[in-house]
Design brief:
5'-nucleotidase, 5'-Nucleotdase_C_sf, 2 domains, 6-stranded mixed β-sheet, UDP-sugar diphosphatase activity, 5'-Nucleotdase_CS, 8-stranded mixed β-sheet, Purple Acid Phosphatase, chain A, domain 2, alpha/beta, 5'-nucleotidase,  domain 2, 704 residues, membrane
Length: 704
C-alpha cells in the first residue's frame, strides 16, 4: 500500500494527536504529480458529507441541492464511472465506491417531519436511494441520543456504519446493531474485481458537542491504525478513511500520523473544495485554508510518516455537491496518480448541468416533507427592515452578526421575563454559541416566519439561567468564545447584555473537557455590561458583584468547552427557538428595525483593546444607568467601532422514548417543559402550527 509522490524526507511527528482548535502549521498541501508506473486499476470515490436534513433544496437556492436531485446525480455519476470509456491515464479495469462522512440528519423543520406519528425517517429513505457503500458516524446523529440514531440505522438495511474508534457496547440499541454487523470499524467493498477497505473515524471529544450518553469515543490514531493494519494483513491493499472530525486542519493532522491510507474523505467542517473549472452553487466560495490563507484545492494533500502523500477531500454540505475523487493504482495497489478530472460536481436543477429529480425520492421524501414545512411557513411572526446574517464563515462562527445578536437577545429576553417565575436572578448577559445558529444564510429583509425561526434555531435546547457566576469565570466564558478565532468555530460566542473587545494575537484560552482552564486566556481586553458596569479592564477582571448569565442548556452543560464547570442552572420554560419567536413577535412587537440590528452588528464584539460603549436601552435586558458625565458608571468612554472548518457545535440532549427522545431533564427542566408549552401557546399563531409544535416538543423534535 505505498502511496504516490514520495516526499524527500518523512515528516517527523511527535506527541499524541490533540483536537486542533488552531490551524495546523505548514503548507496546505503537497503538489500532486503522477509517478511512473502503469495504471492497473482506477477507483472512483463518489463522496458526500453533512447532508443535515436539507432534504428539499439548498438554503435560499431552490434550483440547487435537495435529496431528490442528489440521488439522481449519484446514479448518473455512478453509471458513468462504471460503464464509461476510460479517460487518458486511467485503466479499463475500474470500480466505484460511494461513501458519506456523517451528519446524515439535523434537527429542524425538515427533520421534524420524520417525527410525525407513522412517518418514516425521511433522511434514511434519501440515504437508501443515494446508494452508499458505507457511512461514517457524525456528531449530529447523537443529537437526540443513541436510541433515535439506532432507529435511523435500522431504516438503512444493508448500509454499514463504520467507526473504528467508537465503542457502542454501553448502548443496547446500538450494541444490537453492532452485533448484527450494521456497525463496524470498517467494511470491505468489492468493485471491479478489487477489494476496497473503508474505515470510519469520529471526533474524539464527541460529548462536548452532542449527546452520546454511554457511547465512548477514543482518541483515533491507535484504533484506526490497528484497523488499517488488519485490512492490510487480510490482503486489502486499497483503503479509504471516511472521518467526521469537524475541521480540515484536524483531518490534515490525522493524515500526517496514519500510514496505509490511500485517501481521506472528511466531514463535519462544511468546507467547499473545488478543482479548476468546477461550478459552485451560487453564493458559495471555495473555503480558505485557515493556516495558509489560500483557497482549498481539490484534493488537499498531506504527507504521512512514511513520506507518502495522502489526498484529503470533502464536499461542502446540505446535498449541494457530490465529490468525485479518481485514484489510479498500479498492479501492486500503489496509487500512481489522481486524475485531473477529480473535483466537486454541484447538484443543480438548472443550466447545462441540470439533473432531473429522482422520481421515487421526489414522491417518498420531497412531497411529504415539503407539505409539512409549507404549513410552518404560513405563520409570519415579524417584519424585518434589514437582512439578517446567519452565514457561518465568515459570520456567526467568526464574528458578531445581527442575527447572532437577535438570537442572544431572545435568550436574555426570556431569561429576564421568566426569572421570577423560576426563582432565579434576572440575567445580565446572554450567550449563544454560533454553532447553534443553523440557517447558514442571509435571511432577506421582509417577513420572518415560524419556519425561519426553526431554521435559525432548530434544536430543542432549553433557555437556561446560570446564577451568580464570579466575574473571573465570566471572563473565562468570554475568552472561550473567542479562543479559536480567527478560525471558524461553533463555539464562537454571540452575546446580549455585554460589549467586549478582544485581541486575537494574544494567548488563547485552553480548556479541558471538564471546563478546567489549563491555559488562561489573555484575549479579552475590555468588557462592559449594558447597564454600564465594567467587568474587565485592560485584560484584568474588575472586582464586583457576581454576574447571572443566560444561555442554552447545551452550553450550560459545558458544550463547546465553555467553562461553566458544573455550575447549577435552571431551565426557564422555553426552547431557544421559542425565545427567538417570542422576542420578535412580542418584545419587538413584530418589527426588527435596522437601527436596533444593523448589518454587521452593533459593536457588541470588536477586535481591539476597548469595548464599544453600550447605548442606553441596548437590547432586551437592563438599561444602562448613565453616570453624571453621561458615560458608563465605571468604564471607558470610547472605543473602536470595529475577525476553515469548525467543530460543528450545537447542542442536542439525549432522548429516551425511542421515537423522538425527550427534552433535557437537567436542573428544573421537567417543570420548564410544562412552562414552555404555555409560552408557545401564548406566542400565538395558527391552531395548526401550535398543534404541530406541541407534538414536536413531545417528541423532542428540533434539537442538536
Amino acid at each position: 500500500m505505498s502511496r504516490f509522490v514520495r516526499a524527500s524526507a518523512a515528516l517527523v511527528l511527535t506527541g499524541a494527536l490533540t483536537v486542533p482548535l488552531a490551524p495546523a502549521a505548514g503548507a496546505a498541501g503537497v503538489p500532486l504529480e503522477p509517478v511512473s508506473g502503469d495504471t492497473g486499476f482506477t477507483l472512483t470515490i463518489l463522496h458526500s458529507n453533512d447532508p443535515e436534513s436539507q432534504l428539499l433544496a439548498a438554503s435560499g437556492q431552490d434550483d440547487f441541492g435537495g435529496a431528490a436531485r442528489f440521488a439522481a446525480l449519484m446514479d448518473r455519476l455512478r453509471d458513468a464511472e462504471e460503464s464509461g470509456a476510460p479517460y487518458e491515464g486511467e485503466s479499463e479495469n475500474r470500480g466505484v465506491v460511494t461513501v458519506n462522512s456523517g451528519d446524515m440528519y439535523l434537527p429542524g423543520p425538515e427533520f421534524a417531519a420524520s417525527r410525525e406519528d407513522g412517518a418514516p425517517f425521511y433522511d434514511a429513505v434519501a440515504a437508501r436511494y443515494a446508494g452508499y457503500d458505507a457511512i461514517s458516524m457524525g456528531n449530529h446523529e447523537f443529537d437526540f441520543g443513541p436510541d433515535v440514531y439506532a432507529e435511523f440505522i435500522g431504516q438503512l438495511p444493508g448500509v454499514p456504519v463504520v467507526a473504528a474508534n467508537v465503542d457502542v457496547s454501553g448502548e443496547p440499541a446500538l450494541a444490537e446493531l453492532e452485533e448484527a454487523g450494521r456497525i463496524a470499524p470498517s467494511t470491505v467493498v468489492e468493485t471491479g474485481g478489487q477489494r476496497v477497505g473503508i474505515v470510519g473515524a469520529l471526533y474524539p471529544p464527541l460529548a462536548t458537542i452532542t449527546s452520546p450518553r454511554d457511547v465512548v469515543v477514543e482518541d483515533l490514531i491507535a484504533p484506526v491504525q490497528a484497523e488499517v493494519d488488519r485490512l492490510d494483513a487480510d490482503g486489502v491493499d486499497k483503503v479509504v478513511l471516511i472521518s467526521h472530525l469537524q475541521n480540515i486542519t484536524y483531518e490534515e493532522r490525522v493524515a500526517r500520523e496514519l500510514t496505509g491510507i490511500d485517501a481521506i474523505v472528511a466531514g463535519g467542517g462544511h468546507e467547499v473544495m473545488a478543482g479548476a473549472g468546477d461550478a459552485l452553487v451560487p453564493g458559495d466560495e471555495v473555503t480558505v485554508h485557515p493556516g495558509t490563507g489560500e483557497p482549498l484545492s481539490y484534493p488537499l494533500t498531506a504527507v504521512n510518516p512514511d513520506g507518502e502523500t495522502v489526498p484529503i477531500v470533502t464536499a461542502g454540505s446540505n446535498y449541494k455537491y457530490v465529490g468525485r475523487l479518481v485514484l489510479n493504482f498500479d498492479a501492486d495497489g500503489n496509487v500512481t496518480s489522481v486524475s485531473e478530472r477529480s473535483g466537486t460536481v454541484r447538484v443543480s436543477g438548472t443550466g447545462d448541468d441540470a439533473v432531473a429529480p429522482h422520481a421515487e425520492v421526489e414522491a417518498q421524501v420531497t412531497k411529504p416533507v415539503s407539505d409539512y414545512v409549507a404549513e410552518l411557513a404560513e405563520t409570519v411572526v415579524a417584519e424585518s427592515e434589514v437582512d439578517l446574517n446567519g452565514v457561518q464563515n465568515p459570520g456567526v462562527r467568526t464574528q458578531e452578526t445581527n442575527l447572532g445578536n437577535l438570537v442572544a437577545d431572545g435568550l436574555l429576553d426570556t431569561g429576564v421575563r421568566n426569572a421570577s417565575r423560576y426563582g432565579v436572578p434576572e440575567p445580565q448577559i446572554g450567550i449563544q454559541n454560533g454553532g447553534g445558529i443553523r440557517n447558514a444564510s442571509v435571511i432577506p429583509a421582509g417577513p420572518l416566519s415560524v419556519l425561519d425561526t426553526y431554521s435559525v434555531a432548530p434544536f430543542a435546547n432549553q433557555v437556561a439561567v446560570v446564577p451568580d457566576l464570579p466575574r473571573s469565570q465570566v471572563k473565562e466564558l468570554l475568552e472561550q468564545g473567542v479562543a479559536a478565532a480567527p478560525a471558524a468555530n461553533g463555539g464562537f460566542m454571540q452575546v446580549a447584555g455585554v460589549n467586549f473587545a478582544y485581541d486575537p494575537e494574544r494567548t488563547a484560552q485552553v480548556a479541558a473537557e471538564d471546563g478546567t482552564v489549563t491555559t488562561p486566556g489573555e484575549r479579552v481586553r475590555n468588557a462592559i455590561l449594558h447597564d454600564g458596569t465594567v467587568i474587565v479592564r485592560d485584560g484584568e477582571v474588575v472586582d464586583g458583584d457576581p454576574i447571572t448569565v443566560v444561555t442554552n442548556d447545551f452550553s450550560a452543560r459545558g458544550g463547546d468547552l465553555y467553562p461553566f464547570r458544573g455550575a447549577d442552572f435552571t431551565v426557564v420554560g422555553s426552547t431557544y427557538q421559542a425565545a427567538l419567536e417570542l422576542l420578535v413577535s412580542d418584545t419587538l412587537d413584530g418589527r426588527i428595525t435596522e437601527a436596533a440590528y444593523p448589518e454587521g452588528g452593533s459593536g457588541r464584539i470588536v477586535v481591539g483593546e476597548e469595548a464599544t460603549v453600550p447605548e442606553p436601552g441596548t437590547g432586551p435586558g437592563p438599561s444602562p444607568s448613565p453616570s453624571p458625565t453621561g458615560g458608563p458608571t465605571d468604564g471607558p468612554t470610547d472605543g473602536p467601532t470595529d475577525d476553515p472548518s469548525d467543530p460543528g457545535t450545537q447542542g442536542p440532549k439525549p432522548g429516551d422514548d425511542g421515537k423522538g427522545g425527550s427534552l433535557p431533564r437537567t436542573g428544573t427542566a421537567l417543570l420548564g417543559l410544562v412552562a414552555a408549552a404555555v409560552v408557545a401557546v401564548g406566542a400565538g399563531g395558527t391552531a395548526m402550527y401550535l398543534s404541530r409544535r406541541r407534538r414536536a416538543a413531545a417528541d423532542g423534535a428540533p434539537d442538536a
